[in-house]
Amino acid sequence: MAFSISLKRPPAPRRNRPLADYEAEKQQKPMLGELRFGQGKVKIRGFVMAMVLGMLALILLGSVNRYQNNMPCKALIIEVDTTHDNAFARPANLRQYITSAWGRQLEGEKMGNIQLEELEATVEQNPYVKNAEVYKSIQGRLYVEAEMRKPIARVINEDGSQFYLDEAGEKFPTSELHAANVPLVRGSLVEQLAPIDSFECVTIETAIPVLKYIREQPFWNAMISDVYIRQDGELLLYPRLGEMYVEFGQPVRIAEKFENFRLFIEQVCKQQGWDAYKGVSLKYRGQVVGKRRGK
Question: So what's the pLDDT on residue 66?
């Protein structure tokens, strides 16, 4: 009867290994009290400590929120930016506006009952406010920061009604509290205040780039007092000095035309005087046509 026996070789005797190999093997084996994630190591004690601190932070934050939500509003502080010739409303006016819109005073109201987004929307509904930011303090104060619209011109309709145009080309009403030092826009104009972002009178809308240019340039903002819009859309400008009119023409090549007018002022008006010419035309490309008085 045939059979076979599988013999196992005895393990090779352990040889002395280099110290570097031993240290490398030691680093690869996880130590007691450690967990391995990928290639890094996270100590159990540190991991547990971080979880505990995170839970405590959440509990503390929840307690602070509950405390603040139950706290009554101690003060409503309103700040209005009026550094751009736009003091159309004051903090007292906005406070009254908020109280009227909400039907109650916010002082004494629980902070948790005051929704910041809703209050921001209320403030921005004021016709003089462009943007608003509202935030709370942990001491129970409610802050409102209002950015007012920046005017570029004041439009006077044929029937005498008036409104302002802001830098975005939107309309907003005049105010009894402040009159901005901006050019007056006249003509055979019939334009309603609402809607604020569209125009029935197209000639006003097409003139807005010229009005913005005047407002943005300190020299021209100080120089031009009136802008007359003809029915065909051409513009007449009236400087504050003298009794001269400026035929600007259609609102195109705006920077070029104002540069030509500046050269006319420096080279002609300053030498011959403002009363030497009754008018000047900038309508034609590359030309400045002066019209002497008495001719």
Answer: 64
Identify the CA nearest to 114 among candidates 75, 148, 146, 79: 75
Gyration radius of the chain over CA positions = 38
The boundaries of every CATH 3.10.20.310 domain in the chain are 75-148
**Where does the chain have alpha helices with state H?**
19-28, 44-70, 91-102, 116-124, 202-216, 218-223, 254-264, 270-272
Boundaries of CATH 3.40.50.11690 in the chain?
Answer: 151-292
Q: Which residues of the chain, if any, have pLDDT below 50?
A: 1-10, 31-40, 42
Phi, psi of 177 (to 5 degrees): -85, -25
pLDDT for res 12: 52
Beta bridge partners of 172: 164
Does CATH number 3.10.20.310 belong to domain 75-148? Answer: yes
Quote helix, strand, coil % in the chain, to nearest 5.
35, 25, 40
**What is the topology classification, in CATH, of domain 151-292?**
Rossmann fold (3.40.50)
The pTM is what? 0.75
Q: Which residue has the tokens 């030309």?
A: 287
d(CA 35, CA 45): 10
